[in-house]
Amino acid sequence: MRAFFLIVALGIAGVAPAWGAESTGQGTSADSLEALLGDQGQVDHLEGRFEQSKYIADLETTLDSSGRFRFDAKQGLQWQILEPVPTQLRITPTEIIEEQDGEEVMRMDVDEQPMTRAISEVFFAIFGGDWDKLTERFRVESLTADSGWHFRLDPRGELLKSYLDTIELQGTDYLETLILSESNGDRTRIQLSNVVTR
């Protein structure tokens, strides 16, 4: 399996999962999403640690990995997997690049992978403040949260729906948790920690 698919096939872990979160019943517009997330969309540089966990339904098993991430508004998202297999991934709005031991081993156009494109767009929309793009491809539902913000993304297009059920995002000042539910029963949980911005 290509190391890139560690993002989707191994996942990226979260705090306590929110499978039973209660919906407010109201769709969220681009303007209200911007108000909800505040400074999140004004970030030029953000970095920290991640832990990731993926439940694979067919195998009835969970795979874990961890490492460091860095988002730069100009350079994109860098995902440095330290465990279990050291791998460097660079994600831009148009492509995914995998490197091992400093050598490029894979380059993929995000349009070739609907799930990849969806995840890429979510990260760039959240960190780059492109709320119109997010609400164009997803129906955004605000969920109740004890503190901070919590919402669910439901894909609009039929092609994306065939791969993806929902994405849940949760955070306080910045994104902390991403929960991705796939149509085949697989579930990915993502946790970001020790986040530093500038």
UniProtKB/TrEMBL annotation:
Gene3D superfamilies referenced in this protein's UniProt entry, alphabetically: Lipoprotein localisation LolA/LolB/LppX
Asked if the record carries the keyword Transport, the reply is yes
Looking up InterPro entries in the UniProt record yields: LolA/LolB/LppX (IPR029046), OM_lipoprot_carrier_LolA-like (IPR004564)
Its GO biological process annotations read:
protein transport
Q: Where is the signal peptide?
A: 1-20
Q: Name one Pfam family in it.
A: LolA
Q: Which UniProt keywords apply?
A: Protein transport, Signal, Transport
Entry keyword annotation includes Protein transport:
yes
**Assembly with partners or alone:** Monomer.
Its recorded name reads Outer membrane lipoprotein carrier protein LolA
